[in-house]
Each structure stands twice: as structure tokens, then as C-alpha cells.
Hints:
The complex is a heterodimer. Chain A is mostly helical.
Amino acid sequence: MKQDIFQAIADPTRRAILTLITIQALTPNAMAEKFDMSRQAVSKHIKVLHECELIKAEQSGREIYYHFNAKKMQEFDNWLAQFRQNWETQFNQLDKVLSTIKGQKK
Amino acid sequence: MNNHLLFDFNVDKAAKTVFITREFDAELPLVWDAFTKQEILDQWAAPAPMQCKTKYMNFKVGGRRFYAMISPEGQERWIIQEYTSITPKTNFKLYNSFADKDETPELPGSEWDHNFSEQNGITTVSITIFNESAERMEKLYEGFRQGYTVMLTNLEKLLATLSQKL
Lengths: 106, 166
């Protein structure tokens, strides 16, 4: 199953990885070193981040570098903005309904 | 219409929780009814141009509201809201999940908690949505998305917020 982006960023290590690679693309080995983690543990985090497209892989010679995918994060924020907008629209509708019912009672 | 009614919307991405607070210019029993009675819910509980239509609703613990969000093109998205706790005129909780038209849920869903309070004729409703899934919500709004203004959040700011939560 495709990873949920909420799930992906719920983890502090994954957030730290994202923060780090916004500055500079990194190889899995470099990440393991920076976070003092096993290569296996790093691979797991990379898999999650990659599946929800928050990071992109780029091959450079024999190494794979992971980049931050800013576009995906923007999509996510757009979605949140849309979600907020929907609630706002519904509540404005409810204001009208409430005022109609109040009018009928008088 | 009162334009000074509070609307607050916060997302804690790390905790996967959405916090919504809204004030209404009406007394609590009426606002309570608006959230718990099918005939009123159907008048407002889908953002225009979408409409909602409740197939059936049984507002009691263990009961459900089974309803559809309908797009202007007639596309239907079914939703089950199962009531898990009710304290009349104070609080109710439900479990929200998408479903097919035969009421088969698409799990996992999300937990919604509603709190009601009144002061000087203004009723405040606070809603907490826990475990909302972006992917599921995206499915709902697919096809309904045209024409909205894109709000681009500054990436630096976002990451600063995220790292504060570390």
C-alpha cells in the first residue's frame, strides 16, 4: 500500500532526514553516518519517504543521492488548505441554516 | 450576519491531528441539533457545490449515519459515521470512514471528537480529528478540485515548524 504522508512525517527521524536533505542531497550511507544509525534502519526510513514521494532518488555514478521533493510537500499543503476551506464553507452554510431556523421560531 | 465569529483551524502533522474551533451565533441546543439531526445536517454538511444526502441515521452509541457526498456531476462518495460516545448537549464522538454504496467501510478511518459550550448566546464547537489520512481525503476531493486558489506555503516556514516539534 502507498504510504500516507502524515505517517511519513509523524516520525522524528524522518523529519530530521527531510530537514537535512533540503540543504543537500545525501546518499544512504551519508545519512546513516549523520544519524548514527544502521544502514538497514536508514533504508527503512528512505523506503517510507520515497513511497510517499517526499524524496526523489538520483543516480550519480555508483551512488544514489536522495533529494527533497518540495513539490510533494506543496501538494500536501494545498490539500490541507483545501480541507480547511471545505470546513469554512460548510460552517458558513451552517450559519445561514441556523439563522433561518431562528427566524422561523420567532 | 455576525462576522466576528471565531474560526480556528490547526494541524499538528506530527500528531496527525486536526483541531477545528468555530463559534456560532445561536444557542447551544440548536447548534447541537444541527450536528446531530439528519434533516439539518443535510442542509449544510457538505461544502458547496457538493451536497450531502443521508441514507439513514441513528444517533445513539453504536448507531450510524450513512451518507453520501454528491458532486454537481452526480458522483457519489459514501461515508459512515459511527457514534462511539454521546454526552447530550456537551460532547459526542464518532468514527468516520469512507465506504462503498453497499456500506462496506474502507479502513482505517479517523476519530472525531466534538465539544459544545455556550457563552452569552454564542455557541462554540471544537472538533478534533485524529488520524485523518491525507490519501483518503485526496480520494474524496479528486474531481472536485478545479478552480481553487492554490495557497503556497513557504517551505522554510513549514520545516521550521516541523523541526520545532522534534
